[in-house]
Amino acid sequence: MRTLRNLLITVLLVILAFLIYDNRVLIVQNLSKTLDKGETIVLPNNPTYKNNFEFGFVKETDDFTASNRQEILDILYTVLNNGLNNFTFYCDQNYETCVNDFKEISRDQVLLSTINNMVSPFNSYDKISFTIAAYGKIDMEIQKLYSDEEIIKVDNEIERLITENLGDKMSDRDKIKFFHDYLINNSKYDQDRATAIENGSDIDNNSHKAIGPLFDKIALCSGYSDAMKLFLDKLEIPNYKISNTRHSWNLVYVDGKWLHLDLTWDDPVTDTGVDLLLHKFFLITTDELHDLDATEHNFNAEYYPEAEKA
After folding, report:
1. How much is the pLDDT for 2?
2. Which of 255, 261, 270 lies closest to 231 in space, CA to CA?
3. Is position 31 within any domain?
4. What is the widest separation between alpha-carbon atoms in the chain?
């Protein structure tokens, strides 16, 4: 009797498995509909360090059910710009390639880095990971680049420098020049770490963050560009960082136009060890930038449309 019952149970389970397989598409669609309609996603009010600038490549969104590839990018930007540590969003049921598109985006480190460049360094990620369900639920986990203690320390120092050195009658260009010159005069390019990275190793210090030039007096290009972006954000001057696989610098909207600003190349490493302060890469157009150097300063015009027109 027990053998017969076990046999019946086995047969029923096999039939159930076949039914589920035959109706798998319908089941996934219904589950997706339930998810789309069953959860209201609300962002925090007035998050700290959020940028309110409008960019050409990505923009803020309040719709967290992606219907196309651009909407995925806008969701990623919105999550980072609002300083969130984790987030869940969904694919629209009619967006059939959503999961595949997202997998492609999640593997493109240059693309993710571009979106990271658009937000405050305090909200940017050091590591970002995703969990993707077959039915279109996407979970994000974000590990921030700056600790809470570092944020307070850097933010207070930039506020101090602004309070003690900037006047109401100064133009935006003069304010930017002050901070440009201050960072270069008070720090050196971290050649030792740059060489280590070129050789496939690294040195554990803060030169890749704003902590480096502001406190440790050493900086890589990312340290200079982070510090400058935080300063510009504090003054509410539209800006973002530009990067490629080898270099990063700033793009700033000043005097009614977008201009490039590269502190790294204005703080050159000399054979004699003499410190130099240059202004060759201070608020220049794209044509001027590429006349000076088109190799280290190449960028994807699709990602940085403002720079293409600069």
Report:
1. 54
2. 261
3. no
4. 95
